[in-house]
């Protein structure tokens, strides 16, 4: 019996500890540590709803305790309490108060929801039709199973798996999907929104990061076997650093590889270039590999090193089940050469 008593104490304690750990996180991916204006708006709504719930909970507990004490059974008292069949005032109050609380919660929630989904105009036009102000930058986000494509139409560059943003600037985002429904989410910078297949189902939102750093984004909609592995990096840079990155990306061309990785380049051209772009050459079926050696992750989830590059190329289905990367029958020497070549893919300096 004593053993069961000990377990009865340990289990609730472990439950409380696990509940406490659920509140832990870091500023790279935690919605509880907002680093952008959109995320701050979502966080404020969370605090507002939590405050309302706490107030209601405290009042209910107080009333419950009062009733337990005042109307508890007493020895020697066999009297029957006054039987109350209804109270008009109380019935009005417990109907009106929840309505008021819902209004208090609904108004800022609806306001923030519409505000977060409205993009500013990318250019203001003067009376004669001339462009006066370029306005916020625009990024077209396309979700794929199971990777992300980021197009900067004004800058004429495309990246994959890594989204670059200037700090303290608003950026318009157009969201779409190349296959199924996904959900674009950067917890520390803004709320989430679905990416739908079809041109007429494009969603819009905006991002406004407020702190330089590297953050993590993810897909928040169940989209297939490797949904849980559909991550991407968000790099927020100072304006000058962002402009330098844009310049380096635009100047990157598809060049001949150094002699030590020339074999890897030949393998890449024969098997990969038709799907993956490098600089000004290649296809757009798969992620762009421009500046691949500067990426932080392989396939969005593996540490960026030669062994993991070989692992991904050799058996992509083992890393991300259900993805569209075909299996290649490369031998170890070919894998080494191809990985060496990919590690040489840098942006122009």
TrEMBL record:
Catalytic activity: 4 Fe(II)-[cytochrome c] + O2 + 8 H(+)(in) = 4 Fe(III)-[cytochrome c] + 2 H2O + 4 H(+)(out)
Record-annotated Cytochrome oxidase subunit II copper A binding domain positions: 134-248
Cofactor(s) the protein needs: Cu cation
EC number in record: 7.1.1.9
Primary localisation category: membrane
TM helices/strands, residue ranges: 47-69, 89-110
Keywords: Copper, Electron transport, Heme, Iron, Membrane, Metal-binding, Respiratory chain, Translocase, Transmembrane, Transmembrane helix, Transport
Organism domain of life: Bacteria
Pfam families, sorted: COX2, COX2_TM, Cytochrom_C
Annotated Cytochrome oxidase subunit II transmembrane region profile domain residues: 23-120
Cofactor note: Binds a copper A center.
Ranges of residues in domain Cytochrome c: 259-346
Location relative to the cell: Cell membrane; Membrane
Membrane-protein topology: Multi-pass membrane protein
Top-tier EC class: translocase
InterPro entries (alphabetical): CcO_II, CcO_II-like_C, Copper_CuA, Cupredoxin, CuRO_CcO_Caa3_II, Cyt_c-like_dom, Cyt_c_oxidase_su2, Cyt_c_oxidase_su2_TM_dom
PROSITE patterns the UniProt entry points to: COX2 (PS00078), COX2_CUA (PS50857), COX2_TM (PS50999), CYTC (PS51007), PROKAR_LIPOPROTEIN (PS51257)
Family the entry assigns: Belongs to the cytochrome c oxidase subunit 2 family.
Entry-linked PANTHER family: CYTOCHROME C OXIDASE SUBUNIT 2 (PTHR22888:SF10), CYTOCHROME C OXIDASE, SUBUNIT II (PTHR22888)
The protein's role, per its UniProt record: Subunits I and II form the functional core of the enzyme complex. Electrons originating in cytochrome c are transferred via heme a and Cu(A) to the binuclear center formed by heme a3 and Cu(B).
Name used for this protein in its record: Cytochrome c oxidase subunit 2
UniProt organism field: Pseudalkalibacillus berkeleyi
